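Before a computer can learn anything about folding, someone has to put a protein's shape into writing. The three-dimensional part falls to structure tokens, numbers that each stand for a local backbone shape. The protein below has been through that process, and both of its lines are reproduced in full.
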Amino acid sequence: MIALALAAAHASPTTSSTPLRYYPGPSQEMVTLAEPWRLTGAVLVRSTDLDALHADPQIARVQELGGYAGVVRVQPVAGVSSVQLANRLHELPHVRWSHPDLVVDPVPLARPDDPYLDLQWHLINTGQRGYVPGVDVNVEEAWEITAGAGMRIAVIDSGTDLDHPDLVVLDGTDFVGGDDSSDPDDGNNHGTAVAGIAAGIGNNGLGTTGIAYEADVYAIRLVGGPTTSGDVYTAFVEAVDAGAHVINNSWGYEDSCNGVHLTSALRDAFDYAEEEGREGLGSVVVFAAGNGACDVTQHGLLIHPAVIAVSAVSGFDRLESYSNFGPHIDVTAPSGNIATTGLVGTEDGGALSGDEDYVGNFNGTSAAAPMVSGVAALMVAANPRITAEEVRRLICDTAVRMDPLTGDWDDSGWSPLYGCGRVDAGAAVRAVANVGPAPAPEIEERAEIYEDRVVLAWPEPVDPDGDALRYRVRYTLGDSEEQVVLLDRPWLDLRADASVGDVIDWRVRAVDPWGQGEWSVSQRLEVVPLPEPPEVPEPRGCGHVPTGPWSVVGLCLVVGLARRR
């Protein structure tokens, strides 16, 4: 397992309260880490010349971390400070970035001491507990279209109960304990509760229901003890490489209210999810905003444009008192006494209706984030061609704007408390649900086309969703290279480019706004010269007359009338 190979990095960290100055990213600006910090003794580097790193006399070992080429963890030789090495490597031309591999301690962002709840009001709010009816994620409308079959949600958290009967869990890496399983061995139910909100099994006669209740969970244990920023990077790479459509993060750093640097390793982790996830369409990254009741303007984990940052609202559609807020909030979701899965047979005071496999009091932005992750999974299931960027945009566009008096909404429809508003699963899924264009009648078979009529045309197919279609045409003309054009009309005029003798190979595919479409036609044509005009026989008794039907008929008629006189 990867975690076993990294265990040495965790063995004897250096701790100090002396301000640490280092480069967190590729710029030339140093930052100062004034809080007590711990170093693993290693350095994280992204380089275009790994041979140079292997040959460096101050480097004892180079370990590739996967993901982007050249991202490695290097171990200095004895007597060399990892900070000094990182800062020296930063100046080398083949190094894109380098910084010390800091010990980080992700903490869960739940509030498990809130009151008990025996109903999943966040799914369907009918006024339970005196809440305002309708303040929920509106998931029933989404379930009319999809329940998330085939989706995979990576839960980077405290581990997930692999044996829970209400979850389908794939076992990932344990970056905390370094053992062979991400199953939590410390009694921490946080990751299991998060997994149940996003993807608990539905329609099985057991316990609670997740938002994407036909999805599976890929569990990675990163919360529950010290780990490293290199491990965080590797965890994201693992989630992407495991096929995660969505990556949920209901964790953060304890000092998030005082600012968290977005190091290059974390930036590349998010970039990797955006650029490499889902074969280039992007894995959707969701983060809980945190529970410090503070403005997270300097929260590096939320700054990255590929991250959906989620705040929390109560059943009264107001920001929870503990929820963080600020300019990087993207959307909000319900929280407060959420019913979900727990460690099997271990829950006592928080048990849901006396069932020790479930909890009824899960809270915090930790509970809000997996709701958004579940909605994102439903959107991808409804439209597999949608990109991560489109998921982010449409979750925002379809969100419910509420709290008009104190929400501080701007002209664009964004609030520093709620982002774009409360997530609406039904509206988001309807906005992306898609069926490709239906087949159209076959076009007329032709082998030749006259030189003055080199216009390729095809019948317009019908799109079941009523989407405006575009046509992707690929063609070769004579000996030229293949050309690709995208049109919003069902024809292509090649008269200006075609010559007699050219052979045209062409095919067209009708696509909807999501790039989906099975309808296509193709032909092979040869451009031929115009036919010679037919000879017009000389009319009897008319002598020599101009050509042209009207001339012949007209003249003969005049002559005939004259002769009768």
Observations:
- The chain has a mean pLDDT of 85.
